[in-house]
Amino acid sequence: MPIQYLRQLSGPERNQQANRQLGFSLAFIAGAVNAGGFLAVGQYTSHMTGMVSMMVDHAVMASWLLAAGALVAVITFVAGAMTCALLVNWARRRALRSVYALSLLLEAVLLLVFGLMGAALAQRTELLMPATVLLLCYIMGLQNAMVTKLSQAEIRTTHLTGLLTDIGIELGRALYPNRPRQGHEPVRANRIRLALHAGLVTSFVFGAIVGALGFKHMGFVTTLPLAAWLTLLASLPVWDDLQQLRRNSGPQQKE
Known about the structure:
The protein contains nine helices and no strands. The chain is an all-alpha fold.
């Protein structure tokens, strides 16, 4: 049962339950990466609205090097999303079961690179900051695009602005004082949507707490369990594809 459950989480056959449970896991990881990354490099890496604003502010102040750095961070986030789209469409064309798992596996590898690179460059902040900021922006773009595609844009995991907005909307509907009026439907909150977004925000916050505490006390080694969990999530669909490839490339029996 646990094996089948893991296979369903990142497999190509999607349902709302699998999407939500995978979304909670990835929101936790995004929170941990954002909070831990801030302690590592002093900058949040999934907040592209702030990054674009920073780019414009630096440009107006004629701080061209800083403006260029923010621009490259935005481009890197977009490149991560592009990579996800390329992987998903490549896998779909080949009818692979790892259509979404490939992005998860790539994210796991990049988190390991982040941990190893951070540990190696910890004493060289002039190299650590730009390299890790760009790597984390790429990871966040990759993850956000993957969750967007598999959930048909229902779920976001790397930033909370939209989630908190939707929570506010549903709470406003829930608190609306309905009065009987002919020809008007009563205002009702979508409680399923509210529970989903509240769960994603809670997972992100809990992940941020774990990531911040982990980076504070253990440093870059905190990325290892995050990468291990992503690898576990991706492993079964990838394994299924490898087994199918092995069977297809085996010796053909003669008639």
